[in-house]
Amino acid sequence: MTLEDCRDDLEWCSRCSMCKFIPMEVISGYDFATVCPSIARYNFHSYSAGGKLNMALAMLDGRIDYTDKLVEMIYQCQICGGCDVACKYNRDMEPLEILYQFRIKCVGDGQLLPAHMVVIDGLRKEDNMMCGSKSERGDWAKGLDVKDLTTEKAEVYFHAGCRYCFDKELWPAARSAVSLLLKAGVDVGIMGKDENCCGGRSYEIGYQGELTKYAEHNMEMLKVAGAKVLVTPCADCYHAFKVLYHKIGKKLDVEVLHITEFLERLIKEGKLKPTQKVPMAITYHDPCHLGRMGEPWIPWDGARTRGSGQIILHEPPKEFRRGTHGIYEPPRNILKSIPGLRLVEMVRNRERAWCCGAGGGVIDAFPDFAQWTALERVREAKSTEAEAIVTACPWCKRNLSDAVEESGDKLRIYDIVEILEQAI
Amino acid sequence: MALSRDAYKALEDIVGTDNITEEPAVLDAYALHWGLKAFTGNPFGLRHEAVLLPASTEDVQAIVKTCNQHRIKFKALSTGWGSMNGAGSEGVIQLDLRRMNRILEINEKAMYAVVEPYVICAQLQAELMKKGLTFNIISAGSNTSALPLTALMGSGPTSVSTSYNNRNILGVEWVLPTGEILRTGSLGSGAGWFCGDGPGPSIRGVMRGYKAPLGGLGVFTKAATKVYHWPGPEVLGIEGASPSYTPKLPETVTAHYITFPSWEKFTEAGYKIGASEIAMACDKLPPWMLALNLTENGREGIRLFSEIRSQTIDKGISILIILGADSQPEFEYREKVLRRITSETGGEFLPLVEDPTMRNRLIWHRIRATTGARETFRLMLSQGASFGACDSWEFAVSEAEEGARLKKKYIEEGTIIDDGTDNAWGTVYEYGHMGHMDELYLSDPSVPASGQAAFALLEDTMRACMEKSLGCPQIVMGNRGHDVFGPSMNNYHLWARKLKKAFDPNGVSESTNYITAEE
What we know:
The structure holds 2 protein chains of 2 kinds. Chain A is of the alpha/beta class.
């Protein structure tokens, strides 16, 4: 697939501006009606998905060439998929795919952002997106009595992900996740320093070769380890393993679960019993990659054709991913199972959630924009009168925590496993 | 023709460096409009010289004065859906009003709301509903500006109970093409926003007239719109995820989709339903749009359309009626009246819409006007709309009847979509005898035969307007169209031209899609 392959959709955008807002049906007030951080922050139409489609078409038509500003606009976007859901409320087209392809074209044409080059260099040398040393990747798990899959076999492979492995402040959450699994009697193991990046974030920046490389590596690693289930507490990794690998024809031969899906299962089976009261009002932030982008990949190999009267049809019939079947309920069911905890929803929840701001390489290249986006989420959370935001992704936790710290706010930010551990 | 550096600097000083750009990629994002492909074969129109993001009336005024000083043309847009939002001539700067996005006032007692141009209809309606109010959302959808000065005709699915924008405009703050600020209606005499006609200058006919001036007469920076009673809950409980939400509505809000055996009976029913003042919406939603509205993808839409065709198009002409009441007895009265009118005019209820889930979805889709793009662009590249006069209900229906007749041959030759010929959308206005109807047709300009058919059909409808006295089509824009229709309509074009000249002596308010001072 290339940007040129998306030409039909590029020409099909009707500039309705739906991509800038949450679906019209669920707008419940003046505030919190927007879904796209990029257009909300920078205002020119070119920052919206529709605007990016327009620019992509202009480029294919030879009307414009790369400039620093154009490349900046392409990357001042978290690729959060909010626009994709909003567009597909009404339309049968693929705006998110175009945003990916525009970035892939940028990388192919050598149009790179210096901040991303540093991260990608680190990835190529150390197999992680955090510019950390590969030899230190397993340090987060020191002292945990968990199997080492490089030497032992286990039913479940726990993949911590780059952020958890190298962001020391977040280690307690990753350790809590493993502890809960062990407490429930799960036969789980980790790869320690031999764990590798999933490749997902690099794909979102436009480096599609890296995704293929890590998909192949991880497939091989899983085969050797003999695990039947892959569990990750990172929404980005989950999306890569479950969705992106399938998309590029490297579907994993194991069950891929986010930690929230697995924990919900263990609670239902009675293997984990949240009995301790956690008296707190919290709101849940849906990570984009677990929520709307976490629904399964639906393979389709076909073309757009013209039916009777010039109707545009997809042949064979195409089923679109519209964010309907994302992972929304498992985390909520976990939270609802905790005594004393009161869940209050933000206006923008589930498929229409506002992004935390970290995704798509924004946290690396445009940290101020990442923080601006996170602060908007914090403002929304505070409007619910919740005492804390609970999320299920280390990137969200990091970015939201930084925003709260910078603003001097008292709102607390938790990973969901930390809250569950308090209840058990 | 690039802006002189002096002019650019002057504009930059007004809005700040971050809010002005000449970046070619940004300019192309503003130059592209789907509708242009149908007319020129190229979706890109003319590039603007720059795009600016003013944040206030003061910004707009300063920009307009600078434009007069430097003889630069300007064109403002709000949400920007439609090719008329872009420059129609060279040397134009675009003002994107999206930073002017505040709801300034909701006055429950005087029943009006004051907004800036980039408040979208969904936002305003959601805030109004919290106070038991609603307003007229135009048929294009709630993703458009709530300012009652932006759409062509300004009619919407609920216009039977919420009127249309010509008549909903109250006080307006207007930056004239000279840079002066004019406050119209009661606002002009410092009496607030509550009235469009005075005390103070009432120039609603000049300002908006039959159609909005499409950016050709300066910039409207604030306006009050009339608001109406909403009998539903303050906030709707909505379950499920996109694209099929299931709203919870009280039992005192319902809908029926009714098919009448002939155009005559349909007309009679429209008059009776309007006069009885029972309906929240008297919405001629054609079966094609109904099918697309209620389905999750285009293919399903086609399937549903063929399924309901025998119960709708093959039997006659259909309309959606939404009823809402504050109490059960009132609701029962409305329902009883509707059933009686339906019985008297030979109407039949469509079972699909009697299903509670489908019914509630449809009601909410129409009251919030959420699915405009679904009903038009999901299966096709281009949508055309002809006729569209604001006249008696009977007159409006005759436009739909003529539209269906004219479309038939193009559908039979397979060049435009088979929507069953009756794809006219319209509404009764204000519980009364007035109404609106425009005939929609879907084509693909990238297929030459289809693009040509769409043009030929448009010409047919224009000819019918002249030969059969079916009014001035809403699609008439620009000098050429007005010069054709003006002589048949009291030479309105000569007056419009004089007004343009008087209001815009330097010709800086770009008006290719309105009318220019030059004959």
